[in-house]
Amino acid sequence: MFNNDDVIAVLRGVAGPDGRTPLPETGAISGISIRDGKVFVSIAVEPAQARGAEPMRAAAEAALRRLPGVAGASVVLTAERAPGAAPPARQPAHPASKGPGQEGVKRVIAVSSGKGGVGKSTTAANLAIGLARLGLKVGLLDADVFGPSVPKLFALDQRPETSPDGKTMIPLEKYGVQLMSIGFLIAQDQAVVWRGPMVMSAISQLLRDVAWGELDILVVDMPPGTGDVQLSLAQNAQLSGAIVVSTPQDLALIDARRGISMFNQVNVPILGVFENMSYFLCPHCGGRSEIFAHGGARAAAEKAGVPFLGEAPLDMAIREGSDDGRPVVATAPDSPQAAPYMALAEKVRDAVAAEAPKGPKISIG
Ligand SMILES: Nc1ncnc2c1ncn2[C@@H]1O[C@H](COP(=O)(O)OP(=O)(O)OP(=O)(O)O)[C@@H](O)[C@H]1O
Ligand SMILES: [Mg+2]
Hints:
This protein is an alpha/beta fold. The chain has 2 domains: 4-78, GMP Synthetase, Chain A, domain 3 (2-Layer Sandwich); 100-354, Rossmann fold (3-Layer(aba) Sandwich). The protein has helices at 4-11, 47-50, 54-65, 120-133, 150-153, 196-208, 228-236, 250-265, 296-304, 316-323, 328-331, 339-354, and strands at 29-35, 38-44, 72-78, 105-112, 138-142, 161-162, 169-170, 172-174, 177-181, 215-221, 241-246, 270-275, 280-281, 288-289, 308-311. It has an 8-stranded mixed sheet, with helices on both faces. A 3-stranded mixed sheet has the order 1-2-3.
């Protein structure tokens, strides 16, 4: 069996970001891990070199696949932002080729929020599980490379298998949902700060190089916000529709409106707005309290002329389920807490069934 030294020896045959120096000597290799004969390597790249780094990444991957005894190889580009470094500049979209794993994906739905921490990942996970419970073939792509949530939401820490030809990663599966997250590939405690082009490269790899198989719906848990990464994803992922998650506070609603206008800008239909943490369900008495001015998202949706998709309470069982890797729709599908997410899943199913699938399915850069 091969070890880290063999991996480094192979990577010596690949030129680093400057096009000359052998990769291991450039100090760009930020991580190597080997598990079950599969090798995962991360390469940290300077933003100025990032656009040109894809051939290097591909060359490294190809070289590793030739290593005797290797069952699969995956190389990702990462970036650690220097303290005080400027935020990534706006990058024009660069369309990526269509990968072997995405032919069978019929529709891609984004779950997005203008603001972080509103429960987007919780909603995406419960929606995906709900769609699976409705009998659809469902995938969930955690595109939040800044703070991947899927490993925690589904309590998974194993790495994905690689297909026999080593070209695609096989998604993990739980609660009937096919799952892929950058969090499966990079240690959870690894502090990785991504720069724009690397983010797009990582996300397009997650779309392109994953053997999704036949999927009715791929749910994408978007990174929070309405910045360049989100815009570029919305623009390039051939989304069939987007759901905007918001909490009822005014500030969140302003961000939700920003989210709606971002999707409008790139002609992605808004399936609607979902209000999370809408009201408080007391775990002791079951009583309901309107902590925030409840109903703000419904009003915002009406004002923007988009459908309102329902509301989930701020609730202990929802939080504990999310944080324990047991989303409420999976563990208590008939509970009042799961009901809003199941209703959301039905609305999404009906909305996408009403329109013909688009093609090409995904092209993301
Ligand atoms: N309806 C809810 N009731 C109670 N807690 C919730 C609810 N929805 C989400 N949470 C909790 O709030 C926290 C944030 O939720 P989540 O990670 O889903 O948000 P997010 O919008 O994806 O965040 P980020 O912007 O960091 O990606 C989590 O601890 C989650 O368990
Ligand atoms: Mg999240």
